[in-house]
Amino acid sequence: MRGKITLRVSFLAVLLTVALILSYLESIISFGFIFPGFRLGLSNITVVVVLYFFGARFAVPFGLIKSFFSLMFLGRFSSLFFSMTGMVFSLIVMILLRKIGKFSIYSVSACGSVFHIWGQIFAAAFYLSSLSAFIFIPWLSLLAVFSGIAVGWLSNIILSRLNSSICGKFR
Questions:
Q1: What is the DSSP string of 37-64?
Q2: Cβ pair 145, 103 in contact under 8 A
Q3: How many other β-carbons are positioned within 10 Å of the β-carbon of residue 33?
Q4: Which residues have CB under 8 Å from 83's CB, separation 6+?
Q5: Residue 134 DSSP code
Q6: Using the 8-state DSSP alphabet, how is residue 145 labeled?
Q7: CB neighbourhood size of 53 (10 A)
Q8: Per-residue pLDDT, 37
């Protein structure tokens, strides 16, 4: 029993490290030519993997810790409110869709991506005390769908490898 817990914590720590590396890589690769401030959200692959591999009980703290450390290491601590709001919106939707059980990993990830954007827009509107931030929802939502599908696709590949390896034995 104790060995399973150690393996689980170690694996989650590795996934958190991967998420931080992906966040860093995204911060130095600009996608501003697509839409100002747009990021692919590749570090969210780890959140989707944790949700599908370990369940919601682990995905919620993992996602929040990932957001917190990502912002802390990248020096954008002022963005914590936006990131956390987006992560909470995303996690709620992904957990609900996963629990319903009728949606593919691609749909769950795409919806999570869209709601992450919406959470950030709501946070921006609240922070700015203005509804002007909502003008970005259509374009960012469209980009989020494509980004979310890509994250879901990559997550699916990783999960298929994990489920067929020894990692599947320590859930």
A1: T----TTHHHHHHHHHHT-HHHHHHHHH
A2: no
A3: 7
A4: 67, 70, 71, 120
A5: G
A6: H
A7: 21
A8: 67
pLDDT at 1 over 60: no
Percent of the chain with pLDDT over 70: 88
pLDDT exceeds cutoff 70 at 166: no
Q: Which of 39, 147, 31 is nearest to 83 (CA)?
A: 39
CA 81 to the chain's CA centroid: 15
d(CA 67, CA 45): 13
- Number of Cβ within a 10 Å radius of residue 25: 12
Pull the structure tokens for residue 23.
Answer: 């966040």
Encoded tokens for 159: 């999960």
User: Do residues 111 and 77 lie in contact, with contact meaning Cβ atoms separated by under 8 Å?
Assistant: no
Q: In whole angstroms, what is the distance from residue 50 CA to residue 38 CA? A: 24
Query: Residue 167: how many CA atoms within 13 Å on its side-chain side?
Result: 19
* DSSP state at residue 102: -
Look at the block and give the residue holding tokens 């992450």: 116
pLDDT in tens, 97-112: 999 999 999 999 999 9
For 134-161, the pLDDT digits (tens) are 888 898 899 999 999 999 999 999 999 8
